[in-house]
Write a structure and sequence with these properties.
The protein has 251 residues and is an alpha/beta fold. The chain has one domain (5-247): Vaccinia Virus protein VP39 (Rossmann fold, 3-Layer(aba) Sandwich), CATH 3.40.50. It is 33% helix and 25% strand. The protein is built from nine helices and eight strands. The chain has an eight-stranded mixed sheet, sandwiched between helices. Helix 1 runs parallel beside helix 8. The longest helix is centred in the C-terminal third of the chain and has 14 residues, at 219-232. It is globular.
């Protein structure tokens, strides 16, 4: 027998979920990674430009892992706890961290960045991205695809009819903003949650999976999930990811 339901709930319901670091889940949950290797590709792209903007940087974890940052590197974030984490990570490396409101308009002049990036943005403001890119510049992003962790959403909320984050819609939106999509790839990846504490932590952190989630609100369903995992093993779900590379035409 593993740890008790009450013990797991108490631990996962109180641990900090600030930032975008999921290392707390090591050994308790796992997720396959996309084959393209976003962090590696990001590092290669960053090394070739003079100015870059990371939109919705979270706690700055991904950007902080880039070996060589451009001379002008700026990151935006809206949530105060993440903003503090990002500043602590990125300012020592010479990057600027700017507070924004997670809605247009981006607080920058037109045509000032060679590269705009974002990993798992909540929403992509295509027109604003096109505006702040210099001609010939690019938007490079790994995004969450349709029905990500849908099995977990439906366990708590029941069948869901509508699914957003369509890859085709992203292409259309980029092109409508005047960008040329030069690369677009997508993959579906296996996830495993090995205890109910891992599920609670994930739902507290990735808040759009089960909107309005709280331990109190879903206590009975969480107990059912705990018993299911104890009896049958890890809860299996799937994430969807897509990589998009869109360039602003010259002239």
């Amino acid at each position: 027998m593993g740890r008790s339901f009450d013990d797991l709930v108490q631990e996962a319901g109180t641990v900090s979920v600030a930032g975008w670091d999921f290392s707390w889940l090591d050994g308790r949950a796992s997720e396959e990674r996309p084959s393209w290797g976003y962090s590696r590709l990001l590092g290669e792209r960053m090394a070739t430009v003079r100015s870059a903007l990371d939109v919705q940087t979270g706690g700055g974890e991904v950007l902080a892992g880039v070996p060589t940052l451009p001379p002008v590197t700026v990151a935006t974030e809206s949530w105060p706890p993440n903003l503090r984490l990002a500043a602590a990570r990125l300012r020592p490396r010479g990057a600027w961290v700017v507070h924004d409101d997670d809605e247009p308009r981006l607080p920058f002049a037109d045509a000032v960045f060679d590269l705009v990036v974002s990993r798992h943005p909540v929403q992509t403001w295509w027109t604003e991205i096109a505006r702040v890119l210099r001609p010939g510049g690019a938007y490079f992003s790994q995004q969450i695809g349709p029905r990500t962790v849908g099995e977990l959403t439906e366990f708590f909320l029941g069948p869901q009819r509508s699914h957003t984050r369509d890859v085709g819609a992203a292409r259309a939106a980029a092109e409508a903003a005047g960008l040329e999509v030069v690369d677009l790839r997508s993959e579906r990846l296996r996830m495993e949650f090995r205890d109910v504490g891992a599920v609670i932590y994930f739902l507290r952190k990735v808040i759009w999976t089960v909107p309005g989630f709280s331990v109190e609100r879903y206590h009975d369903r969480l107990r059912e999930l705990h018993e299911l995992i104890e009896a049958q093993g890890p809860f299996v779900a799937h994430s969807a990811r897509f990589l998009i590379d869109a360039r602003k035409p010259i002239g």
